Amino acid sequence: SYVLTQPPSVSVAPGKTARITCGGNNIGSKSVHWYQQKPGQAPVLVIYYDSDRPSGIPERFSGSNSGNTATLTISRVEAGDEADYYCQVWDSSSDQGVFGGGTKLTVL
Amino acid sequence: EVQLVESGGGLVKPGGSLRLSCAASGFTFSNAWMSWVRQAPGKGLEWVGRIKSKTDGGTTDYAAPVKGRFTISRDDSKNTLYLQMNSLKTEDTAVYYCTTVGSGSYSFFDYWGQGTLVTVSS
Predict the structure, then answer these.
(1) How far apart are CA A72 and CA A40, in angstroms?
(2) In chain B, which residues have their Cβ closer than 8 Å to the Cβ of A99?
(3) A48 contact residues in B (CB cutoff 8 A)
(4) Is the distance from CB of A77 to CB of A88 less than 8 angstroms?
(5) Percentage of the residues of chain A whose pLDDT score is greater than 70
(6) Is-contact B34 B99, C-beta < 8 A?
(7) Can you tell me whether residue A28 is helix, strand or coil?
(8) Which value, in Å, is the radius of gyration of the alpha carbons in chain B?
(9) Could you tell me which of B8, B118, B5 has the C-alpha nearest to residue B66?
(10) Nearest residue to B88 (alpha-carbon basis) of B5, B4, B1, B12
């Protein structure tokens, strides 16, 4: 089955840029989606199809995907961005949804 | 406004059964593909399964750990999604989320319910 690998944690100072990676074999050939989950809340879709933003998601959130790594970039990080972030793809070879293990973003 | 409200969670003994429901509103449920995603306490997200719209065949797909034990169904007349869970194991303990599946490639989960907790314990 397809495996997505994320760093367990990323720390960033307020106002700086956070980059959260998601590794997978030739992930650049797949569509990657990202979710934000704050403590005690349901996940929220923040990026879909590698780099599209749902309505209501700030432009500070962006995504890219190439080769074996997809990246979620959060610019001008705010305290309210502190959350767990998950990448996700659809593995069409097995018709299964696949999530990365999640990355805890800490705003220093 | 899209709303998904799960119910039916609770405490069940290993080997037991439970049926979760998800009441949907704010969109045309009959046209939507739907999915269940779970999250064990303190752990990450795990996809459980999905069901296509009846127009697209109404078929289901499941994650390996639940295949043969869990069944997803839908009642479009009631705008409700179901997850029948049988032969439950302690490792099925999790918050279960109902989600819509984004149209187009049907590969992402765009709206989520608040979740319902299932605890499997003796």
Answers:
(1) 22
(2) 37, 44-47
(3) 102, 108, 110
(4) no
(5) 100
(6) yes
(7) helix
(8) 14
(9) B118
(10) B12
CB of A93 less than 8 A from some CB of B: no
- Compare all CA atoms of chain B with the CA of A8 and give the residue at the minimum distance: B44
Residue A86 CB neighbours (<10 A): 26
Tokens of A72: 């979620």
Q: Are A70 and A49 in contact (CB under 8 A)?
A: no
A59-92 pLDDT, tens digit each? 999 999 999 999 999 999 999 999 999 999 999 9
Is the torsion defined by CA of A77, A78, A84, A85 positive or negative? negative
State which residues of chain B have pLDDT below 70: none
| Token code pair at residue B68 | 């043969």
Decide if A49 touches B, using CB distance below 8 A.
yes
Whole-number mean pLDDT of chain B? 96
